[in-house]
Amino acid sequence: MFTMDQARSALQRVYGYDGFRDGQRKIIEHLAEGKDTVGIMPTGGGKSICYQIPAMLLPGVTLVISPLISLMKDQVDALHSLGVKAGFINSTLEMGEAGRLMWQAQEGRIKLLYVAPERLETEWFRERAKSIPISMVAVDEAHCVSQWGHDFRPSYRTIAPFIQELVQSGRERPIVAAFTATATPEVTEDLIHSLELLEPELVVTGFKRDNLAFTVLRGEERKAFTLDYVRQRASESGIIYASTRKEVEDIYDMLRHAGIAAGRYHAGLEDEERAKMQEAFLYDDVRVIAATNAFGMGIDKSNVRYVLHYNMPKHMEAYVQEAGRAGRDSEPSECVLLFHPQDILTQKFFIEQSEAAPERKAHEYKKLQVMIDYCYTTGCLQNYMVRYFGEEGEQPCGVCGNCKDERESIDITIEAQKIFSCIYRMRERFGVSMVASVLKGSRNKKVMQYGFEKLSTHGEMRHLAEKEISDLIYVLIAEGYLQLSEGQYPVVRLLPLAADVLKGKRTVEQRVAKSLKPKAGTVIDETIFEQLRLIRRELASQAGVPPYIVFNDSTLRELAELQPTTEAGMLRIKGVGEAKLKQFGMPFLEFFQQREEEAGRYDME
Ligand SMILES: [Zn+2]
């Protein structure tokens, strides 16, 4: 097989990194011994290195099975920029081109071949594959093989038979490495079974992402919050996820009207516009993009500084995957979830609408409840996730919204009492907007029809707008004083906590987000950083790749800090390997050399 010394030296030479992270090292050690391995590591954990380095060192070809067509191209581009020979076969490729690649693989002229799982279903591919010396099969997004995963893809079920067929044709059985970012213990067991792994080693590298600060905000006015939040981060890349196309459109319009260059992405747009938007985001032409969960499956952009969820997603797997797109370069980043009780109804509606079997629906409801509990937990948010995926939560993370709550509390006991007593007088039979109308003192038809203008609480909150009253009611729902019934016309009811408030035994506080201000930048010179970004932008467009493929933000920051003027100095920077130095290094070196010269001239004068 290969040795760990070889692996380390490849890491240094090709990627420009000094050492493996803990999980990477363990996975590569197992693969070096020729063992099947399951790697469960969060997005941004440096998964691709775990199979790319073994692929370079093993004889023959590594077949990488990946469901994401756009990601394949990115990965292959990235490998080429590192000087590694790789190719991909998917539906965007012409038959002749695919044949040529298969030929190169057969000759051993490429080390990694990326294919979509559907490819294994074609006779043509299965036959040609038998003449390729495949020494490893790396299965990406391996949870897709399990029915209990959140993204079951039947074509994944052809992987095990495909490998069997290879063996039956007289080939040696390749090592199988399976990777996923999100698998509960139940799903892990299922995937080991379905992929027919042989006594696999399991490496779980921790869902803890030290550079991500998670926050849940309940009862915020979402639009105002979002606009403010994005404005404060004008120079940073961010994704705003919303549940519906309509909300994506609303956010997009709001940002554009405020003069912010924003993108949008959802399944209702033409393919062409979607591709354009994705590209604009990738190339930093727009810094913020509003999107449904259709966005991001193929996005490997490393410098996303924040992921803002405008709605609660349907389960933790989706949340971890989407939020995990922040901070892949290990720089501090934020993941904020704006929770609104309406989200629960929306998600229940989606489950009801689906044509899944009752057993499956019950499973979805269970997952939804876990997500809701996350929004209400007062403990460390990172630990909550980590435990869900079957790991012991260790120390509180110290940076999430619950570990570090800097919000201001304001006393809203009197408002709460007015609202509760109004709901009580309306006999707990009406929805949020009707309660708000009565408190506002409206005399609309419906209010008069029920004689509510005669209630003592009618008009008790006339100093507020109806919208503000509704928002307050939602805060009280989110905090567990009130409950919203299910169904198409949800009704607000009092919960036991509300009775305590009415009796004066309990006060109500609302926490107002004062924090979430952008953190002060590090000590590096931002002007230099911006100039380096421009150089990178230029190199990227010449090479036809996204900027982060040239160098990612943390490499750029280190460059700005150390300002190397020699090739040796440049190679000491994390993320600068030999191939990248050769391809992209010169313009940076020249920039620093010129600065040094200018500084020297000043000294002499
Ligand atoms: Zn925490």
Q: What fold name goes in the CATH topology slot of the largest domain?
A: Rossmann fold
Global structural class: alpha/beta
**How do the strands line up in the largest sheet?**
3-4-2-5-6-1-7
What's the number of helices?
25
Q: Tell me the name of the CATH homologous superfamily of the largest domain.
A: P-loop containing nucleotide triphosphate hydrolases
Q: Estimate the global geometry from the Cα principal axes.
A: globular
Topology record:
Elements: H1 4-15, H2 22-32, E1 37-40, H3 47-57, E2 61-65, H4 69-81, E3 86-89, H5 95-106, E4 112-115, H6 123-129, E5 134-139, H7 159-168, E6 175-180, H8 185-194, E7 201-204, E8 212-218, H9 222-231, E9 237-241, H10 245-257, E10 262-265, H11 271-282, E11 288-291, E12 304-309, H12 316-323, E13 333-339, H13 342-353, H14 358-376, H15 381-388, E14 408-411, H16 413-425, H17 432-440, H18 445-449, H19 466-478, E15 482-484, E16 492-494, H20 496-502, E17 509-512, H21 526-543, H22 547-550, H23 553-562, H24 567-571, H25 578-604
Parallel strand pairs: 1-6, 1-7, 2-4, 2-5, 3-4, 5-6, 8-13, 9-11, 9-12, 10-11, 12-13
Antiparallel strand pairs: 14-17, 15-16
Helix pairs in contact: 1-3, 2-3, 13-14, 16-17, 16-20, 17-19, 21-23
Bound molecules: zinc ion.
